[in-house]
């Protein structure tokens, strides 16, 4: 029950977590989802979070996004703006068309109509859904919904982006293309990204730094910087090497838990 | 194995009835417009025919004397006679005007009350349970207060109508807001919707089905309250459906009473059609109507 | 246990149930007293079971008679006429009177004559009912116009009696032509009597309550009807001879049904304005109808056959009392 | 930048009010039981105090004569007097018994009707819109029919109650069934739930929130119909709340009327508490109540 | 609007699709999701379906499961029993606990209480969620929900299993473990499996045959049998080779569509 959001230590930190703890439930049923997680994301840094299923990655993103209260520790955000979060589920509004879904954050920012239209069209082009603007979420396939959610999150235009398995439902090709798009946007807009993924190669492909979370309680057990020069290719040997390293660590960790 | 499979197929087809049939309604789409209209109309006509026939048979059986239970023909003639005179139409007009005004007030009050209670924990604890309690209060209990406040004006009627309908609408809103999926709330907040915007962009549309259901119940409450409330000021200068309903009863005029009931039922059907269309539009948007795809 | 399933016009064999309706109301005093004091039960004898039902207003009682759920009921003149005319003279017969009088025009202070009523609002219990007709006819005689829609020199505002007290005290109406006990209640709320309706009638008599039986029951069980009328005569005898006891009985009966005894003071106050007579005063009913036709509130109704006073006259004769004229 | 952040934090906290506060209600869990009870109680007490105070002030102002608008003290005394006599309790008992029986009937009829209409396309087309129309029919219109069918028995009262409440419950069911998420329907069917099992395992629980909302509205309708219906026939020695309400009004006994209204309101509050508890249990199960964790 | 379910040509076919076509919507908005797909799954065969996002894989599974009507063509199922389908979304019943969710198909089969309990416990152990039986779906992480859905589908005990990206939300380690479990169950129960995945390696790891679907309209464009002897390892070179081949074909296909 300590305070939540404070100023990060310095202007060189976009997101600062110090000793963040999160407990769900009470008493005998309490689940310690996160235990003393400290982590700084520098402005413009791309951080990937990897960890076993149920280790607290989504919880962490929710806390940073301010959608949940920490049970202990502090989270600091630079610049005032709250970060944009792409949820693990698409979380689209079923009563709106694809276009309208993507338009919501723009409307909420008070962007004029004409500009909004252009931006929506551009975003839908980015996720390769330009033909589907008039459809409703229930008329889309799983991967299409995920891409709409991506477009909607990108429409937020926040300096900090939190992404929870954004490409989990996509085939390898589409994913590759979106990796390129995301990397382009990230470098153009100088975003700070906190990116959850199960695909270790994807992490190696995108990240400046990969962070490994342990399971119940979630703790940072490993952190490595990725120094492969960009542009990278997901099937390059350097990426594979990093991926192999992280996979090995992950295997040890999961093995330790007897899974 | 072949026969096995065939059996299973037959079973599957037999099971595709009722709700299941609704679910694969996609194939209806290929049917022509006329066919669909006919499919929607014949059950109504059949139901009507059956109802009238049953009624006529009971009358023919001589179970009750005709002055107690007149036949469809008598009532029909009465209805035609009524429809030719000005009284029915004047009354209808007056009542409809009052219903419209009263309902609009009720909706405004109900929506605001519902939102306020749903939004504020303190208000909910304070008056949340009062809403259902108010709903159960019969209209006549409010008459003295209405007269105290508004004397014999139409305002007194509206007062009774609003007290009858607003709680029901508010309850619809509260129940709708309570069941907004948390994920959508979070999504909305993360997209920058706060305060009123969260309501406008997320909560209101997500709660819409429940709100429409509440509005429908509210209409029934407001109409019933109106029928009772119209007796507060009878004939000050005009007749009304509520007065006709009571008078026909007081005059022991069964054909008149039944024809007035038919008028009320027809109005109810018309209003239901409006609500039905609204509901269908929402369901189509949400993808729960046409459950064929997905 | 219905009276109507045993056929035969002669007498009744086997136990019969008589379902009798009335209102817990001062104008129904003979009925209340008759039931409460066991007068009906005594007169009906062991072979007839009395099943009393109370009503709050006329329509339900008439509906019950029409549908065969009620064999006889005490009721006002208005529902009586409605029941007779709507059933084309089939469903009901008046076999006795019960009460007369008890109606007055109560006005606010400051209204001292008919002319003062100009532009004022006068309440009546129901459009086209006895009191409504009476006030319109009376105003017409005074040279004041009224309309069905509530226009004219004097605005007639039909409303439930219960509401009249509310509207009178809140100042929404200026006068009311109502029956007891509302007259007394309005007086207690600061009103005064401008017209006592008795003064408008010959012999100061006009019907306010009479006893109605369903034709079917009358045909099936004339003997039971005779006993009922005997009971009615005896009840009126009791009411007139022991007013104190009758008043107490009414108060108690209302208390049992409504949960709160009626204020005895109010009953005592209203008592003198009423006369409990077995004469149904058929002439007043007829005149009232004529007036209604005159003020264009109803079409003429043929009342021929409504009254069947042979039972009453038999009962009166047996007691050595003067008989009433069969209209 | 530091100040920027602080500003944002302050704003965020200010915004965490109303529904947002509800959403992060998780922290309430750490509060003690007593604190939570107090938090739920004080707003009610405050609302009550404010209402009584306002009432007393209006009475003191002399706006209306005391026999027209009695003060809280007079009404309180009346209530105490009533509570000491047997009449109130007898009436209450009679009415509650009738309410229970009538409501149970209404629920049975309403659920069956709702399921039938929701399930069968033909039935829906035939009588679906009739349900709302029936709902708008005032109780008094049914009295003649009730007497015709059931004479002057309690059955006539139940008839009126069921006709008043069942349509509303059916509407709740229909609206609930209509909005069952198609994905869950499909999941249920794939898991082998067909026909009645699909209802039992998927549709009924998924529609539960809407059904409970319908049951709540149905209770209000049944109670109001009962208050009116109890006048069809007033027992010769048996009092009821409906009779008391009407007679207190007819006798222009304002303190009595108000104390009867208070009794009705208190009953309404009790019933609402029951519905509230049911609703809360559902919301907790569904994870929409404790919206802290998602 | 031709007939739907018929007898497969021979007893050696568990699922038989011939010329299956599916159109969503009408008129100008019509989407041709599947166009003349013919496919036989032999009893005990493990078939993996791969294809770009929105190409009609979920549609195909829904059709086979009998949850949608075909617009043309025929689907035949051997043995009468309808196949078990694991949806792309977890589709858990929010009003039931994890245990109760898994129990539903057992209850519907009329299994006695004691047996049911044992089976549920066993299934939850299979998906490594034995500690979470009493939780409700909303208290689980995304990957956990997916595993509950898997357990529920396995509880169906149908000879034909349709799985729509069953491991999409799982980390590599948990996924590996579940691959083993699934393979074990498949071979023990001699299941016929139609398995949709975006992970080509996963397909090569599991499948007897990999089938490639093209996008809009969905057509079978490539089919290859995987002859690597089991047990296989996902990081084995043979699996990688097959995966590379399929990826290449997929890339051409997606490229052809300009994505
Ligand atoms: N209910 C529906 N109404 C209209 N179109 C639909 C509907 N369901 C699916 N579609 C369309 O059918 C096509 C195939 O969808 P499907 O869900 O089968 O794709 P998929 O191969 O499962 O894709 P993914 O890998 O993204 O899940 C898509 O273009 C989609 O837009
Ligand atoms: N609302 C909640 N109530 C109770 N426990 C919860 C809640 N949400 C999450 N948890 C628990 O917290 C832990 C971490 O969950 P979280 O969703 O953060 O996992 P994750 O790392 O995102 O997993 P995945 O990769 O499967 O999505 C899990 O053990 C989960 O059961
Ligand atoms: Mg997660
Ligand atoms: Mg899919």
From TrEMBL, chains A, E:
InterPro entries the UniProt entry points to:
AAA+_ATPase, ABC_transporter-like_ATP-bd, ABC_transporter-like_CS, ABC_transporter_ATP-bind, P-loop_NTPase
Domain of life according to the entry = Bacteria
**Residues in ABC transporter domain copies:** 15-240
Keywords from the named record:
ATP-binding, Nucleotide-binding, Transport
Which Gene Ontology molecular function entries are recorded, alphabetically?
Answer: ATP binding
| PANTHER family membership | ALIPHATIC SULFONATES IMPORT ATP-BINDING PROTEIN SSUB (PTHR42788:SF13), TAURINE IMPORT ATP-BINDING PROTEIN-RELATED (PTHR42788)
Q: What is this protein called?
A: ABC transporter ATP-binding protein
From TrEMBL, chains B, D:
Membrane topology of this protein: Multi-pass membrane protein
| Keyword Transport among UniProt keywords | yes
Chief localization class? membrane
Classify the source by domain of life.
Answer: Bacteria
Keywords of this protein's UniProt record, alphabetized?
A: Cell membrane, Membrane, Transmembrane, Transmembrane helix, Transport
ABC transmembrane type-1 domain ranges (all copies) = 92-275
Intracellular or extracellular location(s): Cell membrane
Gene3D superfamilies per the UniProt record, alphabetical? MetI-like (1.10.3720.10)
What InterPro entries does the annotation carry?
Answer: MetI-like (IPR000515), MetI-like_sf (IPR035906)
- Alphabetical list of PANTHER family matching this protein: ALKANE SULFONATE ABC TRANSPORTER-RELATED, MEMBRANE SUBUNIT (PTHR30151), TRANSPORT SYSTEM INTEGRAL MEMBRANE PROTEIN (PTHR30151:SF40)
According to UniProt, the name of this protein is ABC transporter permease
């Amino acid at each position: 029950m300590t305070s939540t959001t404070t100023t990060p230590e310095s202007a060189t930190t976009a997101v600062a977590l110090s000793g963040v703890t999160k407990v769900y439930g009470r008493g005998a049923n309490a689940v310690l989802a996160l235990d003393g997680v400290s982590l700084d994301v520098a402005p413009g840094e791309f951080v990937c979070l990897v960890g076993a299923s149920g280790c607290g990655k989504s919880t962490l993103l929710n806390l940073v996004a301010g959608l949940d209260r920490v049970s202990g520790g502090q989270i600091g955000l630079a610049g005032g703006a709250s970060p944009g979060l792409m949820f693990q589920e698409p979380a689209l509004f079923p009563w709106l068309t694809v276009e309208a879904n993507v338009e919501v954050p723009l409307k909420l920012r008070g962007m004029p109509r004409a500009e909004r239209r252009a931006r929506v069209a551009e975003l839908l082009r980015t996720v390769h859904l330009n033909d589907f603007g008039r459809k409703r979420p229930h008329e889309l396939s799983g991967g299409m919904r995920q891409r709409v959610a991506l477009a909607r999150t990108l429409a937020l235009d926040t300096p900090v982006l939190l992404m929870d398995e954004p490409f989990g439902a996509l085939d390898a090709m589409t994913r590759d293309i979106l990796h390129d798009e995301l990397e382009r946007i990230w470098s153009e807009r100088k975003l700070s990204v906190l990116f959850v993924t199960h695909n270790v190669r994807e992490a190696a492909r995108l990240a400046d730094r990969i962070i490994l979370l342990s399971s119940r309680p979630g703790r940072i057990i490993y952190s490595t910087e990725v120094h492969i020069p960009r542009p990278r290719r997901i099937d390059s040997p350097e990426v594979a090497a990093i991926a192999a390293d992280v996979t090995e660590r992950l295997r040890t960790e999961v093995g330790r838990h007897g899974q | 194995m072949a026969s096995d499979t065939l059996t299973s197929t037959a079973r599957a087809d037999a099971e595709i009835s009722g709700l299941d049939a609704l679910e694969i309604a996609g194939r209806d789409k290929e049917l022509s417009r006329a066919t669909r209209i006919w499919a929607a109309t014949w059950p109504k006509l059949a139901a009507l025919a059956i109802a009238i026939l049953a009624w006529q048979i009971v009358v023919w059986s001589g179970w009750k004397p005709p002055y107690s239970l007149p036949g469809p023909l008598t009532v029909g003639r009465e209805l035609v006679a009524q429809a030719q005179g000005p009284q029915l139409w004047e009354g209808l007009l007056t009542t409809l005007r009052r219903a419209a005004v009263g309902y609009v007030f009720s909706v405004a009050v109900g929506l605001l009350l519902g939102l306020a209670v749903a939004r504020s924990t303190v208000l909910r604890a304070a008056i949340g349970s009062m809403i259902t309690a108010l709903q159960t209060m019969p209209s006549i209990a409010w008459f003295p207060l209405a007269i105290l406040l508004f004397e014999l004006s139409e305002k007194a009627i509206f007062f009774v109508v609003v007290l009858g309908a607003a709680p029901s609408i508010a309850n619809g809103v509260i129940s709708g807001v309570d069941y907004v999926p948390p994920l959508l709330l979070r999504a909305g907040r993360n997209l920058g919707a706060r305060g009123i915007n969260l309501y406008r962009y997320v909560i209101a549309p997500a709660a819409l089905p429940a709100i429409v259901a509440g509005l429908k119940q509210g209409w029934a409450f407001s109409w019933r309250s109106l029928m009772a409330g119209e007796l507060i000021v009878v004939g000050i200068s005009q007749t009304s459906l509520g007065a006709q309903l009571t008078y026909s009863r007081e005059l022991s005029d069964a054909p008149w009473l039944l024809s007035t009931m038919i008028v009320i039922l027809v109005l109810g059907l018309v209003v239901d059609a409006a609500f039905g269309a609204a509901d269908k539009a929402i369901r189509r948007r949400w993808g729960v109507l046409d459950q064929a795809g997905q | 246990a219905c009276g109507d399933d045993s056929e035969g016009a002669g007498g009744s064999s086997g136990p019969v149930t008589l379902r009798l309706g009335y209102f817990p109301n001062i104008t129904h005093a003979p009925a209340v007293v008759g039931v409460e004091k066991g007068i009906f039960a005594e007169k009906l004898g062991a072979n007839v079971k009395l099943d009393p039902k109370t009503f709050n207003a006329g329509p339900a009682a008439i509906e019950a008679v029409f549908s065969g759920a009620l064999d006889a009921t005490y009721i006002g003149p208005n529902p009586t006429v409605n029941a007779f005319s709507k059933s084309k003279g089939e469903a009901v017969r008046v076999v006795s009177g019960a009460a007369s009088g008890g109606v007055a025009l109560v006005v606010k202070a400051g209204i001292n004559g008919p002319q003062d009523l100009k532009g004022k609002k006068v309440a009546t219990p129901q459009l086209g009912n006895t009191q409504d007709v009476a006030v319109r006819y009376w105003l017409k005689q005074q040279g004041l116009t009224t309309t069905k829609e509530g226009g004219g020199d004097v605005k007639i505002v039909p409303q439930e009696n219960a509401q009249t007290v509310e509207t009178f005290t809140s100042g929404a109406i200026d006068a009311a032509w109502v029956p007891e006990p509302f007259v007394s209640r309005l007086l207690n709320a600061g009103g005064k009597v401008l017209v006592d309706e008795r003064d408008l009638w010959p012999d100061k008599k006009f019907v306010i309550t009479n006893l109605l039986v369903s034709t079917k029951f009358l045909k099936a069980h004339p003997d039971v009807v005779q006993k009922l009328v005997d009971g009615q005569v005896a009840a009126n005898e009791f009411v007139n001879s022991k007013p104190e006891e009758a008043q107490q009985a009414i108060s108690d009966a209302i208390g049992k049904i409504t949960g709160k005894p009626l204020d005895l003071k109010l009953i005592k106050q209203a008592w003198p304005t009423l006369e409990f007579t077995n004469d149904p005063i058929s002439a007043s009913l007829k005149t009232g109808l004529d007036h209604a036709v005159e003020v264009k509130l109803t079409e003429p109704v043929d009342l021929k056959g409504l009254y069947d006073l042979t039972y009453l006259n038999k009962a009166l004769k047996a007691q050595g009392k003067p008989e009433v004229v069969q209209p």
